[in-house]
Each structure stands twice: as C-alpha cells, then as structure tokens.
Amino acid sequence: MRGRPGGRHRSLRSRLTTAPGGAMTQERQQQEEAEAVVLVYEPTVRDMASALSARMRATPSGRRTLRLLLSAGVLGISSFALLMALGAMTWQLWLMLGVGLLAFGCLYLVPQLQARQLHQMAATQGEFRAVVDDGGIRLTSRDGDARSKWGMFARYVETDDVFVLLTGDKHGVGLMVLPKRGAAGTAGVERLRTLLESRLGKA
Q1: In what order do the strands lie in the sheet with 175-179?
Q2: In Å, how far are 45, 93, 113, 128, 183 from 38, measured between CA atoms?
Q3: Residues whose CB is less than 8 angstroms from the CB of residue 108 and which lie 6 or more positions away in sequence, other chains included
Q4: Measured between alpha carbons, how far is residue 43 from residues 40, 86, 134, 141, 182 in Å?
Q5: Rounded distance between C-alpha atoms, residue 156 and residue 164, angstroms
Q6: What stretches pass through the bilayer (predicted)?
Q7: Pick from 169, 151, 157: which is nearest to 51 by CA?
Q8: Is the pLDDT assigned to residue 57 strictly greater than 70?
Q9: CB 38 within 8 A of CB 139
C-alpha cells in the first residue's frame, strides 16, 4: 500500500519554512543578549541581607523604623547609664538596659533572619541568569522564567555588593537583587549602573 505523496510534501514544506524562522529567532535572541548586560550568579545570604538593609535606608517606612529603633536603643542605654550613676539599682534599671539592647539587636538580627528566609527559598533554584536590556529584565532559574518591564520598578539602590531594584510603594515591598559579581567584570557593572540610572534613577 503506497503512502500519500501529499503528506510527504507538506512535511517537507513545513520543515523548510519553520527552520529559517527558528534560526532567525535564535540569532535575534543572541544579538539582544550581546547588547544587554548578562549576570550569572547563585544568591547568598549576604546578598539578601545587603538588599534588605539598603531597602530599609531607602524607603520612607524603612527610615521610620530605623529611627525608631535607634531612638529606643539610645534612650534605653542612656537611661541605664543615668540610673547607674545615681545608684538607683531597681528593676527599671535592667528594663532600660533590656530595651536598649533589644532595639540595637533588632537593627542587625531582623535583616539577617529575613535574609536567611529569602535565601532558603532562592537557593532551591540553583543558578540564576539575569538579562538586563532596554526593555526590562529577564530572570531565569531552574524552574522559573520571568520578564519584568522597567515600569514595575521606580528606583534602585546600590551597595558594595548588589544593585537593588525597588517598586514605587512607600514600603518597597517588591524588590529585585542583582549581585555585582554576576556581571562580566568591572565593565559589566558600569554598563548595568548606566542602564539603571537611565531607566530608574537612584532612590
């Protein structure tokens, strides 16, 4: 029994027409990546802690929290020192000391605890790849592939280790962390900084 020649012809035409399109798509993707800034990295606890601390300093709600904790810490320690100087060894003395130490402790411990939680979630995805270009940021990992346009973010913060992209709300709830070590050397970091300044501007 002979097969229908039309089926073979359609299959051949399909291969001939789709192959060039696929090649063009691949070439276009390679060209876009060549013009973009590419970062490849595995997130660390230090990345997350640096980002969270930067967000606290850059957002209105974060600055209020920071001032509150600093004020409580200074007040508690100062009250403890004053009561000690007056010889007033009462339970209020130790309460003031506890309040001061707790406030100062929160400045360090809270970001660290949050950073460890975020890292635990991110670490399961292994290596991350971020492609940053004029259209936005494409972030891929083991199980994820997402693209964010620049309109999603309002500003960025830079630390010694990372760039932190923040959403426009007063809390900066949404953030994206881009570790500098993931870029291709100093030139890659400079290109990324220039791109962020042109699209977002510093917080």
Answers
A1: 155-158, 162-166, 175-179
A2: 21, 55, 29, 11, 6
A3: none
A4: 10, 51, 24, 11, 10
A5: 5
A6: 65-85, 91-110
A7: 157
A8: yes
A9: no
User: Which amino acid does the sequence have at 49?
Assistant: A
Phi-psi region of 193 (alpha: psi -120 to 50; beta: other; left: phi over 0): alpha
pLDDT in tens, 114-145: 888 888 888 899 999 999 999 999 999 999 99
Residues paired with residue 158 on neighbouring β-strands, in sequence order: 163
Beta strand pairing status for 37-41 and 128-133?
antiparallel
Closest of 80, 74, 81 to residue 94, by C-alpha: 80
- Coil, strand, or helix at residue 8? helix
| Radius of gyration of the chain measured on its C-alpha atoms | 26
Task: Measure the CA–CA gap between 8 and 53, rounded to whole angstroms.
Answer: 63
Measured in degrees and rounded to the nearest 5, phi and psi for residue 135 equal: -85, -20
Distance CA 111, CA 105 (A): 10
Quick one: tokens of 72? 């409580």
Element (H, E) at 43: none
Q: Give the pLDDT confidence of 142-200 residue by residue, as tens digits.
A: 999 999 999 999 999 999 999 999 988 776 678 899 999 999 889 999 999 999 999 99
